[in-house]
Design a protein that fits this description.
Blueprint lengths: L1 H18 L4 H11 L8 H13 L11
Amino acid sequence: MPKAKTLWGWAVQTARLMVGVPDYDNYVAHRKAQHPNEPIMSYAEFFRERQNARYACDRGRFKGCC
């Protein structure tokens, strides 16, 4: 059963990344392990930052969908 659970987890993560939903849990785990003395963004902050990075909104390149 653990192998199926791991495969399911990878499938869910891949599907989320394909449709543009960032993986907050992995972000938090990474920050705690690699940057323990630095602050961790809230989910809302993380989501907004990932959206801005994906669509380059902060660089003035996003012009809408059409």
